[in-house]
Amino acid sequence: MSRFQVSNEIFKDESVLFEDWVPEDLPERKRELDAIENALNPVLRSGVAPHNTFIYGKTGQGKTASIEYLLYEFTTAVEESDEVNVGVDVINYSCAQDTSSYTVVCNLVNKITGHNPNGHPKKKVFEELYSTIEEMDDIVIFVLDEIDTIGADDEILYELPRARANGYLEDTWASVIGISNDFDFQGKLSPKTKDTLCEEEIHFKPYSAPQLRSILQRRVEKAFHEDALSENVIPLAAALAAQDKGSARQAIRYLYKAGELASSDGSQLVTEQHVRDAEELIERQAIQKGIRDLTTQDTLTLVAVLSLEVDGDVPARTRAVYSEYTDICNVVDADSIAMRRVRDHLQDLAMIGIIDEHEHDSGVRGGTHYRWGLATDLGTTIEVLEQSPNRIKDITPIINQ
Ligand SMILES: Nc1ncnc2c1ncn2[C@@H]1O[C@H](COP(=O)(O)OP(=O)(O)OP(=O)(O)O)[C@@H](O)[C@H]1O
Ligand SMILES: [Mg+2]
Description:
By secondary structure, the protein is an alpha/beta fold. It contains 17 helices and 8 strands. It folds into 3 domains: 27-204, P-loop containing nucleotide triphosphate hydrolases (Rossmann fold); 207-290, Helicase, Ruva Protein, domain 3, CATH 1.10.8; 293-399, Winged helix-like DNA-binding domain superfamily/Winged helix DNA-binding domain (Arc Repressor Mutant, subunit A), CATH 1.10.10. It has helices at 30-46, 63-80, 101-113, 122-134, 155-162, 185-188, 191-197, 209-223, 233-244, 248-265, 272-292, 296-311, 318-332, 339-351, 363-366, 378-387, 395-399; strands at 53-57, 88-94, 139-145, 173-180, 200-204, 316-317, 355-361, 368-374. It comes from Halorhabdus tiamatea SARL4B.
């Protein structure tokens, strides 16, 4: 008998639960969609460039989905408009793999023309981008997703929206819609970039449990067979995701994984237990993925945070983490590094989502400083760390000291 005796009493159309499935409507984002629409309206009103717009919010908040949904409606409206007669080109580009404005410009030219100017001087590649844009429609909208990866090297975000004012473009307008999930990114932008890019600023706040419930409800109707879910499955998946990051992506993942667990059990019904198991599994996989590539110093820093977490001394200042860290280095007989470098390791751990970075305002004289705490589940993190081939064994006795 084949291993693949799969009966499918759970899913009606599983692809609806895939990451790239674009929802037909996002009623929970009405306010944000109205704001983006407002930024685009100069095109439909007068045939001129839309406002440069900066969209930000944590991961899984529907930023990319909203833009995709809205731009489809927008380009259709422009084509059908009797009011204005302009051509609009939309260039959708994710900067996730780029670390500088230079590579973004090269990749944009490559995306549009099929030729990559990489290697040429910066001035030249910008010129290539401008001459490429001049060949395009009247208005070119660049949707630059995940722009935070370019960090402080933000020239593109200033130059592109200013290209016409600075005389680099004559016949076309270029506008930028920048999307970021790094809350602090805006603060890192140079003042002139901020001024130019952030004509409109749109913040996507984390979804609440009721909002996640309605998002899941709409998916379920398409993805699952009728009566495949027991009553509390949607509220539970929504509540678990809301307690954590308020991410729709996470809520959908819980539901999908719960469906898969039910299906492989041979069950006809997805139960609350499937959702709880799904959450644990996904959390564990995320921690495993984060921990896989940690260096010894990353691991020692993380163990220091775990130890403070066990004692309830979190969120902790860098100095407190450092003090714990040096104690641990002594216990395991590892070389310790300077506090400044431990702070870098803390930031790296925050980037991969294992710890949280809380900005703390210590009043007029103290300025701001950071405090650190664990972002993942304590028990699971210790378990995963102990099972991973890191160089520190027996973490439990160390952190319980
Ligand atoms: N209001 C909503 N209605 C239906 N589906 C939604 C809604 N918001 C988000 N989603 C879905 O949740 C998932 C994550 O959304 P999306 O990719 O747009 O998040 P994001 O804010 O761009 O996150 P990131 O910053 O990680 O890129 C997608 O599958 C998307 O379709
Ligand atoms: Mg996105």
